[in-house]
Write a structure and sequence with these properties.
single chain; 348 residues; alpha/beta; 6-stranded mixed beta sheet
Length: 348
């Protein structure tokens, strides 16, 4: 069995650089008061020796852990099957890496996991939390508030537990939905239906409101509630076709639901877009490009949302402020709302 080389110490770095141990500690931990020539010698010695700071000791000095919790209020089966989460996590990971911070992923499979997440956040293991995919009755916002960690939420807050100063990043879900439905109406479609997402999530509720802004709410039969999954899109499409034989267009609340709807339309031998035009929401590649036909959809910058959430949490001076190019809700919550655009393909 080979022997492991001893790990370089602060003392070894100090000896190599010809400075005191305290000087090395200040440079390594980002402290001030070290002249640049000495700091440069320390950095060179660190590189030559391959010194890696002890994170536990470093945290005692800096009061920072260089770690951020990413809390997704969904079971792992959903998180790892839905490309939306992969794209948002990619954006978060890129930004944290640029700031030399680690990502700690926390999932909530069920109610019993909420207390575990709350305890972990309150335990001082991370510098903050990024939280998304919350549902209206989710206890996480209250637990996070009691944990006292800085937090940025993905999506417009919809809960009412006292977290009035919540900072969030969202897309213009309502405006994007209006754009999608107006596009269908502009194609001459007169019987436009909606496959919604779960209405205990504000993104789905906002997209439904955008649909109603154009179509109206006189006929509730035009809406089939689904769950943002392909299987849910299939069930909702069958329900709508059985209920509305004259249906000629569908706006689905996300691309996965739209993909399920397209499968059912093929089963029913309905041509897209000739018989029924379909528009989705997200522009998740490769999903939107690989449907048959390729999907017209509303693009939101999912990866960009993740990066912006991380920048806001880390206090990046280049990040926009929630009270600047975003908007403040009536109850005082501060949000940055990113624009959406329609991407036209063959389905509508």
């Amino acid at each position: 069995m080979s022997e492991t080389a001893p790990r370089p110490t602060l003392e070894a770095v100090a000896a190599r650089a010809g400075v005191s141990r305290a000087t090395v500690s200040r440079v390594v931990n980002g402290g001030e008061g070290v002249r640049e020539p000495l700091a440069a010698r320390v950095r060179q010695a660190v590189e030559e020796l391959g010194y890696v700071p002890n994170q536990a000791a470093r945290s005692l000095v800096t009061k920072r852990h260089d770690a951020v919790a990413v809390v997704i209020a969904e079971p792992e089966t959903r998180v790892f099957a839905d490309p939306f989460f992969a794209r948002q996590l990619r954006g978060i990971s890129k930004e944290l890496t640029a700031h030399d911070a680690q990502l700690v992923l926390l999932l909530t499979e069920g109610r019993e996991d909420h207390a575990r997440v709350g305890r972990y956040l309150a335990g001082g293991h991370v510098d903050g939390a990024l939280v998304f995919s919350l549902h209206l009755d989710d206890p996480l916002p209250g637990l996070i508030q009691r944990a006292g960690v800085p937090t940025v939420f993905g999506g417009r807050p919809g809960w009412s537990d006292g977290t009035r100063e919540a900072v969030y990043v969202d897309s213009d879900n309502r405006g994007g939905a209006r754009t999608a439905v107006r596009h269908l109406a502009g194609l001459g479609r007169r019987r436009i239906a909606h496959i919604s997402g779960p209405l205990d999530q504000t993104s789905a509720a906002d997209r439904l409101e955008g649909f109603r802004d154009v179509v109206g709410d006189d006929d509730p039969g035009l809406v089939a509630v689904s769950d943002f999954t392909p299987a849910g899109g299939e069930r909702a499409m069958r329900e709508l076709l059985d209920r509305l034989p004259g249906l000629d267009a569908v706006f689905a609340a996300n691309d996965l639901s739209a993909a399920g709807a397209l499968r059912v339309l093929r089963e029913r031998r309905l041509r897209v877009p000739e018989d029924v035009a379909v528009v989705g929401f997200d522009d998740m590649l490769p999903v939107a490009e690989q449907t048959e036909p390729p999907l017209t959809t509303v693009r939101q910058d999912i990866e960009g949302m993740g990066r912006l959430m991380a920048r806001l949490l880390l206090g990046d001076r280049h990040a926009p402020t929630p009270t600047g190019p975003g908007r403040r809700t009536q109850d005082g919550r501060r949000g940055i709302v990113l624009p959406t655009t329609l991407v036209r393909r063959a389905s509508a």
